[in-house]
Design brief:
elongated, 55% helix
Amino acid sequence: MRIAMLGLGEAGGEIARDLVRAGADVRGFDPLVSPPAGVEARSDDADAVRDADLVLSVNSSHDARTALENALPVLARGAIWADLNTASPGLKRALADLLTGHDVPVVDVALMAPVPGRGLRTPMLVSGEGAERYAKIMSGFGAEVTVQPGPAGEAISRKLLRSVFYKGLAAAVVEAMAAAEVAGCADWLRGNISAELSGFDERTIDRLIDGTHRHARRRADEMTAAGAQLDELGIEPRVATAARDLLIALRGREKLSDQEKSA
């Protein structure tokens, strides 16, 4: 199995290293990074993929389309193009469109955990025309691959929707804890956050959604006050302001709905 790695940075380098250890024949290109031991260095994208059975594009979302355009003239028919970048579903679909008629199935690969420390064993959710073949090949090298039925874009869509929640939650915790440090109650808030999160289940999600809509007016005022407090503490209220704006928007919809009912 000849595998081409486009991008040998933090993620690509670790995956490439693990593939070599698992017995794969790996060649790669990265304009900024030398390949790890066992990976044959190639001069550019096209040179890297010219004899590959499987291409792993692990550069960046900004470079994903350019990499494919550079490689397209020399891609072998029947090869698999797997895009592992965290890009929008629209970009993943655009890559699949570029490959239409070339007999090169595309795979949308969403890396579902940080790669450092996991490498090839980073959980992967995959979709697209070549997803089943990709899963079979990569599982043979020890990867953990789950196939998501549907075209390219389905896998990354799920990762990004989860990111809205998880990265948003992380940002809220960072902002709140920074303010709590200044206010002198960091230990109290840390314990409060921990207790709240430990009790989360699916019913909690329903309560959060229902409560946010039901109490948008009051909570918008509350988050306005919270933002003012962070300003007083010298902490820029980015998350608090975003929450306030969302609640104001929901409050506006409530007013519109009331007007429609009375009309």
